[in-house]
Amino acid sequence: MDILANQTVLIEIAAALVLAGAAIGFLAGLFGVGGGAISVPVFYEIFGALGYPPDIAMPVAVGTSLAVIIPTSIVSARAHNAKGTLDMAILKTWAVPVLIGVMLGSFIARYAAPEVFQAVFVTIASVNAVKLLRRGKSWQLRDTLPGPWVMRLGGGGIGLVSAIMGIGGGAVSNLFLTLHGVPIHRAVSTSAGVGVLIAIPGTVGYILAGMGKDGLPPASLGFVSLAAFALTIPTSLLTTRFGVAMAHRMERRALELAFGTFLALVALRFLYALFA
Prior knowledge:
Layout: H1 2-31, H2 36-49, H3 54-82, H4 88-111, H5 114-134, H6 148-165, H7 170-179, H8 184-210, E1 220-221, E2 224-225, H9 226-249, H10 252-275
Antiparallel strand pairs: 1-2
Helix pairs in contact: 1-2, 1-3, 1-8, 1-9, 2-3, 3-8, 3-9, 4-6, 4-8, 5-7, 5-10, 7-8
């Protein structure tokens, strides 16, 4: 009887991962995010249900999320670039600073308490959600992007925060770009490219940070669960292009409201986790 019960639980977990993959891919295309806002809480709940403590479940959820973001962000960035709205000049400016920030965030991940990950998630998602939903001119710092040094500092911060949150940086880079007058469609498209810059070194960093850690799930490479990765990827790649197509059909304000609502829900979810 116990064997049948365990098999049922494993089937339910596998089904949840497949569905999460579909949501991750769609969101990656729609909002220019890597889908980490979906995959991190889903992975966290699944590893928790399997009996892993928060100090293992949270970094594994974040590391696996970054691994999943690699292919989805590449597909999303290519699709947005084909629409002509991905700003390669911004990506070139951010490439090195983002890498430095990501590696620092991955190092912090080895020693940080799970509450640190959740608190960063709530803060960034909440600020961005309020900005997008209220859409006041007061939420715009200036009409143009800042100088190269401020841009580089911004890129480093985006990499650092995104690595701790386990996201492709879309929510953070979108906030930075729109605060400096970048139109929402261009910000979303460029944020998809940021996901590529963050996810690859972020995944490597989490693999290295988790090496030798006791109590990791089976089939893990550091803080990356290869089993969760394998179950999530197929549907995420299938749905990414649908998200891109919808993003470019939506009006600017509709896209802002949709993205803001999505981030607000994510913030509430992690706020609940902090105080539950």
